[in-house]
Amino acid sequence: MAPSSVSPGPAAFLNLLETQLLLATKAGVSVVQAVGNGGPDASSVVSFSPWITSVAASTTDRKYNKTIVAGNGQIFSCGGLSPPTPGDTMYPLALADDVSTDNSTDGSNGCQDPKVFIRSLVQGKVIVCMIVSSNYYQGDNFAGIIDTIQKMGAAGVVIIDRYSGDVDYEYQPIFPTAVPSAMVVDGVDMMNLMEYYENNTARDGDGTVITFGATVRILEGRRASYSGERPEVADYSSRGPNIENSQMQLADVLKPNVMAPGHHIWGAWSPTSDALPEVQGESYAILSGTSMSTPHVAGVVALIKQRHPKWSPAMIMSAIMTTADVTDRSGRPLMARRDVGAVVAATPFDMGAGAINAARALDPGLVFDATYREYLQFLCAVPGVDEAAVRRAVGASCPSSRARWCSDLNAPSVTVASLVGSRRVDRKVWSVGAENETYMAYVRAPDGVAVRVSPDEFTVAPGETAALRIVLNTTAPGNAFSFGEVVLRGDKKHSVRIPLAVYPAAVLSGP
């Protein structure tokens, strides 16, 4: 499902799409939705409701390394997905403006129009073309560059972004090309390459090139390498905290729920689509976004449903969230990209419960469940929502037994957007293990909050339930959310992790 948007009204949870997805959940359908590509801004999520599994996007350790070797021995690391220039030959390097007609405009550097180039000067050379990333969808596109280079008989192309603002070049799109091509992805490399070019290019008094002395080779770039690096939350992946309404009041619901690979992902593509000229006519494309991470989670949902056909959508979401990874294989915490170049420790508002772990999700040990009635209780506890609004949205009245707080929903996480004093949060877990298991509760409390779990040790048989009480107390009011976790560790190797996101407030916020 594509992300929805915040609509006017008492609650984001009551917009048309969210309520229809609630009815789908009631029918036993698991709903997995992209959290949006509005990151890294706070509260940029556009998937709101607790019955939806909302997915953030991460990088992977797969890289397509491209290299330019210059005639002076310099080596430039680039992006690109193309063959190398033929053989071991060094090819003359030429700036697009230096091989175009005198009456060409600055547009020749963008390499979008073959008619402005002098074929005899282009042939056999590697041409340097300029793009402006901010104008990518206004004409400066890679398809136009590749078409020009092919038509003019150049040996290859080096693409440089003229935009000097805060661009994270790792997140530039990459496309397979038949022409040897490379995008220089580092600002220092751009300057060094152009300095090498100018120092080895002879010009007459009018600036016309007499001799092209700079040479380069473009190496193979179609072989993937795997670095073993930990995944990072992609900078474009939308962030929490979740919101209740168009007034941006904060909700007691964790979003995102989980993170999956979403950056530079190969996927099927319609050959008839004209959405991206670079892959028109192709059956596959390499794309980035939370729309690419979401199918990973949907696939895991299908695997869980196949293994456990009687599980409800809430149980499946629980299995995915409570088994997600928050560290890499070496035990280092997962990180999140914020502004350009800034990488910080990821929080639940970046990655939800963590990076999806498909193998562990099939055998979570314990699961949390929630029924349609409990979701109605949740809706009726949303501040500013009355029974009439709920009835209009879903055609059902509030249950006779009301929830006091939205955080009372039996979710596999605890989010409190305004903790004043103390709050009790009750949870119930079901054992889905194969044998009796004894669990012990371990707490890492959020800053400014004391957390008590009772019982702190319990034994549960297969198919049986256990009740947990989590009591949160403000110890030091602050001006931001803080994060922690409750981990239930079983003696049969199961580990059930419950993220905590709490705002220890001095006064009650909201209406």
From TrEMBL:
Residues in the signal sequence: 1-24
Subtilisin-like protease fibronectin type-III domain ranges (all copies): 408-502
Organism superkingdom: Eukaryota
InterPro entries: Peptidase_S8/S53_dom, Peptidase_S8/S53_dom_sf, Peptidase_S8_Ser-AS, SBT, Subtilisin-like_FN3
Protein name as annotated: Subtilisin-like protease
Coiled coil: none
Organism: Aegilops tauschii subsp. strangulata
PROSITE patterns the record matches: SUBTILASE, SUBTILASE_SER
Entry keyword set: Hydrolase, Protease, Serine protease, Signal
Domain Peptidase S8/S53: 22-327
GO biological process: proteolysis
Gene3D superfamilies: 2.60.40.2310, 3.50.30.30, Peptidase S8/S53 domain
Family to which this protein belongs: Belongs to the peptidase S8 family.
GO terms of molecular function: serine-type endopeptidase activity
